[in-house]
Design a protein that fits this description.
The structure is a single chain. By secondary structure, the protein is of the alpha+beta class. Helix content is 17%, strand content 38%. Strand 15 and strand 16 form a beta hairpin.
Length: 302
């Protein structure tokens, strides 16, 4: 048997054995894929769902309306409660693959039919930006070609064990997957039990670094490292704390803020309580304490 025969045999077997565990997500506004986690539970990417209700299409063509039980937008994960019927759950791999390992990607874009492709692991510990700009690290990069609507589907080893959740297309034949490790298991268990991850939101929009420098220079202000506030949402935590358009955030929780990642990290650590910021208004540095509460819902970039 040649290597091509072995690949074909693996694809045929995985389509038969694992294909029924791969579902389609959505129908109208957008499409994605997902996997059966357990009886009554489906895992997909958070960017594949809007609101709490979602249509799930199974391999046999059956559709069912599901409810999002937990979501983590910054981590790009969502768990859906839905009648999974006889669809089995995928087994999780116990060992992480290395560069060059053969992998198989499965998808069912919006329920439009199962796809199975072959590739290899091309990189590990990669990172990308989630739906709200938060950096997601530790990702698995592979070369299995995938159609639009494949995000949320599984990447498997030849034995059909789950290696990761396909999430982000890099272009030119590369895809990133969230690895199916113990950390993911813990996150998924929390989401399945209804524990959504909701990092507090300031209610601001941030100007890109080059725009921030140009704006400060235009009014004769010296260059400074930080994040320039381009907009403050009305009645947001930032607005109630007195932050204003043109303020430059230079520190959060006592640590320098040089990138959006620094600010996101401080927000996650705040866990819905308070966050101390240092801002430059013109050339004057001032301290601001932001308090998060029910009135401050996520309405902007940070």
């Amino acid at each position: 048997m040649t290597v091509f025969d072995e690949i074909q045999s693996s694809i045929t077997r995985l389509a038969s054995d694992a294909g029924s565990s791969v579902v389609g997500i959505g129908q109208r506004w957008g499409i994605g894929s997902g996997i059966v986690l357990s009886e009554g539970r489906v895992l997909t990417n958070a960017h594949n769902v809007r609101g709490n209700e979602v249509t799930v299409t199974f391999a046999d063509g059956r559709t069912a309306e599901g409810t999002v039980t937990g979501h983590d937008v910054d981590g790009d994960l969502a768990v859906i409660e839905v009648d999974t019927g006889q669809a089995p759950a995928l087994a999780w791999a116990t060992d992480a693959p290395g560069i060059g390992a053969p992998v198989f990607a499965l998808s069912n874009p919006g329920g439009r039919g199962l796809r199975v492709t072959f590739g290899t692991v091309s990189g590990i510990d990669r990172s990308f930006r989630g739906p709200r700009g938060t950096r997601i690290t530790g990702s698995l990069e592979h070369t299995s070609p995938l159609l639009p609507g494949s995000s949320g589907g599984p990447v498997l080893d030849a034995a059909g064990r789950l290696l990761g959740i396909n999430t982000n297309r890099l272009g030119e034949g590369f895809y990133l997957a969230i690895p199916a490790d113990e950390a993911l298991r813990g996150r998924v268990d929390s989401l399945a039990s209804g524990q959504s991850v909701e990092p507090p939101q300031l209610g601001i929009a941030i100007a890109p670094g080059h725009v921030a420098r140009r704006m400060r220079r235009a009014v004769g202000l010296p260059d400074a490292e930080g994040l320039l506030i381009a907009k403050v949402v009305d009645d947001s935590p930032a607005a109630r704390a007195g932050l204003a358009r043109g303020d430059l955030i230079v520190a959060a929780a006592g640590q320098p803020v040089k990138s959006v990642d620094d600010l996101h990290g401080a927000l996650r650590a705040a866990a819905g309580g308070t966050l101390d910021l240092s801002v430059l208004r013109g050339t004057d540095e001032r301290s601001v304490q932001v308090t998060f509460g029910e009135a401050g819902q996520p309405e902007a970039d940070a």
